[in-house]
Amino acid sequence: MITMEFLIADVSESEFLINYQLEQQIGLGSLPFPKMNSNFLESGAGVCNFFLTNSCSLSTLCPFRHIEGDKTVVCKHWLRGLCKKGDDCDFLHEYDMTKMPECYFFSKFGECMNKECPFLHVDPASKIQDCAWYARGFCRNGPSCRNRHTRRVACQNFINGFCPLGKECKFAHPKWAPLPGADQDTHKHKWVCRYCNERGHKVQFCHKLSLEERQRYQEQSQMRFQSPQPLGGLQGQPIAMGAPGSTGHPPFFSPAGMGAASLNRPLMNPPGLNPHPFDRVKQLGAVGLPRQVPQKPLDEVTCFKCGDKGHYANRCNKGYLAFLSKGSNQVGVSAPVS
C-alpha cells in the first residue's frame, strides 16, 4: 500500500553528505595513546570497516575495534572477566555456545559431573583422524595404529582417469601424492656445515674440503663417539703418551704392560702424585684405576642412633626412637655397680 507520505518523503535514492562522511570516517579523531582503553571499548565501540580490508591508516590510534575474523574459540579468561589483552587476544570475546572451548574433565576422564557445564563435550572418537597410510594401501602399525582405519572401495571411474560425480561419489577417490615429510629426512635440514654454512650435511661430509681434511674430521668424529678403551690398549700393549685413544698418562700405569714380577711388587708413587694415601686414591681413580677405599669392619662400626655396634645408622632397625635406647644404654653403663 503506497501512502502519500511515502510519495512525498521518499529519500531512498538521495545521498546525503553525512552518510558519505560516516562511511569514510571523515573527521575521525585519533587516540592520544596507542591502544588506549582497548579493554573498555569492546562493548561500546564499533568495528573498524577499514581494518577488515587492511586499509586503516590510524593503526593502533584508531578509536574503533580492530577484530580478527579467524577467531574460532571463545577465550576462557574472558568468560571469567580476567582477560587483559582486549582486542589483541587470539581468542574470541563473544559468548557463543558453538565456539566454546573443550571441557577438560570430559576430555580427560570421559565424563563431566557439572550439569550446567558451558564448555563443549566432544566425543573422543570424533577426534580420531583417518590414517593416511592405510588410505594408500598399507599401514605398518596395523590394529595398534592410533588413527582410524576405514575400509573403502576405490572408485573405478576415478582410477581410469575421471569420475563425473566428484565429491558426491560414494566410492573412495585414492590420493597418489606422497605424504608430507615421507620422502625427506627432517634431521638433515637441522644440520649446518660449519665450513660452508650450508644446510643438509655435516663438516666431515662437505665436498668443498679436501680429501685429507674430510678424513681428519671423520676420524675425530669416530673418536668422539667411540667407547673408551682399557688402559692396557690393544693386544696387551701399553698406551704411549699422546697416542690415539690414550688418556695422556705414562705407560707405567697400565697393569697389562707390567710383568708378573712387577705386579707382585707394591706400586710406587709415580712422579707428580701426592704420597698422601687419600689423595693417592683420588688420583689413581682419576686415571682410570679401580677406586678402592678401605672400610671398617662392622665390629668396629658404632651406630650414632642407638649406640650399638655392628651396623651403620642407615641400617638401624630400631626406628626413629632409637635415641631413647641409646640414652638408657649410656645410663646403664655409667651407673655404679653395687
UniProtKB/TrEMBL annotation:
Check the record and name the Pfam families matching this protein: zf-CCCH (PF00642), zf-CCCH_2 (PF14608)
**Which SMART domains does the UniProt entry name for this protein?**
ZnF_C2HC, ZnF_C3H1
Where are the C3H1-type-classified zinc fingers? 69-96, 97-124, 125-149, 150-176
GO molecular function, one example? Answer: zinc ion binding
Tell me what this protein is called.
Answer: Cleavage and polyadenylation specificity factor subunit 4
Which organism's genome codes for this protein? Schistocephalus solidus (Tapeworm)
Question: Which residue windows does the record flag with biased composition (Low complexity)?
Answer: 228-238
Quick one: signal sequence residues? none
User: Which residues does the annotated region (Disordered) include?
Assistant: 226-252
